[in-house]
């Protein structure tokens, strides 16, 4: 059995990639930075809300760990956005 070399099944044009439709992959550099920053802000908010809920339920240590994750995301966001400026 021979291996087929039919490239018609593959789209070799990178411009048609579905990743190009994501906001953080647009051609404008400022829009790319804003998309990355927005995504990390959402993740940071997720950790803050989860931490508050965990503490409210009595799981203080888990809540503190979530706050640590929120701080780590905030530092990562500051590093990435600072590096992109």
The number of E-state strands comes to 0
Mean pLDDT: 78
CA(first)-CA(last) distance = 54 Å
Q: How big is the Rg? A: 20 Å
Order of helices and strands: HH
The main pleated sheet reads as: none
Structural class determined from secondary elements: mainly alpha
Could you describe the 3D structure shown?
With 85 residues, this protein is an all-alpha fold. The model has no long low-confidence stretch (mean pLDDT 78). It has helices at 29-56, 60-84. Helix 1 (29-56) packs antiparallel against helix 2. It has one domain. The longest helix is centred in the middle third of the chain and has 28 residues, at 29-56. 62% of the residues lie in helices and 0% in strands. The protein starts with 28 loop residues before the first helix and ends with a helix.
Topology:
Blueprint: H1 29-56, H2 60-84
Helix pairs in contact: 1-2
